[in-house]
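Severity: low
Component: inverse-folding endpoint
Summary: output formatting inconsistent between runs
Steps to reproduce: submit the following structure tokens with default settings.
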């Protein structure tokens, strides 16, 4: 019965997709009603010359980076097999700050990391971890305390658990927002219907207090959900305090659909529509992406460029991609906030798979590679932390 329902859903989706995408191609704009669909490739090469420095090497699937306050560029880096590493004085320290037991397979493991806004005082940082509870794998958010010398860390507690886990679609990105709340990107754990279930934390962008409670001003009463209808986000950042850019993975065969990763402009309470719509489809009460690609990228981390070293990038969204192996810059129209004014490709096929993307305290963009995750070419230098500058 379920397979019949999925097949009927696929036929409806494919019909709607053809109509919506024709509209996108004709208008070439992006708004709540239409979007830019790239049917062939990723776009033109970037016009701004950039330089890439290797900051650290010898990493194994560095999934998340958290720069620490103090102005010296120290950072904690998660490695998906379960290690937290310390970057100090520009040098990757040999030992692990912490090693976590995991119930990991596929895309799970030790994923995102975020430092508390008052880290200088409390030394707290947060981890998104795939672990086991009651004999079943789950994702959860843990809080840890970094030692005064930065060389070790102590588990404090689980602040939010019972996030469904699967071999694929585990989400994992953590970021503190400008409101001081912790935002958690989750995947649908290969059960697309969970993305529309406000009672499930799967397929969402969650918003929590630093202690893991549900903020009273969340858009859905008594729910940690900030956004619904997400398939598998690994990247989001803030345009302004009320508006986020969020990337999402398109389908890889569900209901006969493939590709169409997304760049979205969203606000509290929005519904990205998965699994009911995808690509450039439109539907009442659902968000149509601003930019989508026929082929699977798929997107990793994302960051708004706030530095001055590359003034042409100011305010743009920079997105790392995995399979397509490039850094994508998206510039939005100042008058039409959901509309893409320009997008272009950097680092095309030069550094391999790119995972996390974030701004550093020095005003430069930082990117991690993910070539040792079983899907890339893991060379003798293993995975890298890169700095992108003029």
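Observed output (run 2 of 3):
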């Amino acid at each position: 019965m379920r397979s019949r329902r999925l097949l009927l859903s696929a036929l409806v989706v494919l019909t709607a997709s053809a109509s919506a995408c024709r509209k996108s191609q004709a208008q070439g704009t992006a708004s709540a009603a239409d979007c830019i669909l790239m049917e062939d490739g990723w776009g033109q090469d970037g016009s701004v010359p950039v330089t890439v420095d290797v900051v650290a090497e010898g990493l194994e699937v560095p999934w998340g980076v958290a720069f620490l306050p103090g102005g010296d560029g120290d950072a904690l880096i998660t490695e998906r097999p379960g290690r937290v590493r310390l970057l100090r004085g520009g040098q990757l320290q040999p030992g692990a700050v912490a090693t976590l037991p995991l119930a990991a397979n596929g895309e799970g493991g030790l994923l995102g990391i975020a430092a508390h806004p008052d880290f200088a005082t409390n030394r707290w940082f947060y981890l998104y971890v795939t672990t086991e509870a009651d004999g079943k794998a789950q994702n959860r958010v843990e809080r840890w305390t970094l030692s005064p010398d930065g060389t070790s860390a102590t588990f404090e507690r689980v602040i939010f658990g019972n996030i469904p886990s699967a071999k694929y679609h585990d989400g994992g990105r953590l970021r503190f927002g400008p409101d001081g709340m912790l935002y958690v990107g989750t995947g649908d754990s290969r059960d697309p219907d969970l993305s529309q279930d406000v009672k499930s934390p799967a397929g969402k962008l969650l918003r929590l207090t630093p202690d893991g409670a549900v903020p009273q001003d969340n858009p859905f009463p008594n729910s940690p959900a900030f956004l619904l209808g997400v398939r598998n986000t690994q990247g989001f950042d803030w345009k302004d305090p009320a508006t986020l850019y969020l990337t999402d993975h398109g389908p890889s065969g569900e209901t006969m659909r493939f590709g169409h990763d997304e760049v979205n402009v969203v606000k509290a309470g929005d519904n990205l529509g998965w699994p009911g719509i995808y690509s450039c489809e439109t539907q009442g009460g659902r968000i149509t992406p601003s930019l989508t690609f026929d082929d699977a990228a798929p997107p990793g981390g994302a960051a708004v460029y706030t530095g001055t070293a590359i003034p042409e990038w100011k305010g743009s969204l920079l997105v790392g991609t995995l399979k397509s192996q490039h850094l994508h810059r998206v510039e939005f129209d100042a008058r039409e906030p959901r509309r893409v004014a320009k997008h272009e490709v950097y680092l095309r096929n030069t550094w391999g798979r790119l995972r996390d993307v974030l701004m550093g305290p020095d005003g430069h963009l930082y990117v991690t590679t993910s070539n040792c995750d079983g899907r890339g070419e893991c060379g003798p230098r293993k995975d890298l932390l890169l700095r992108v500058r003029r």
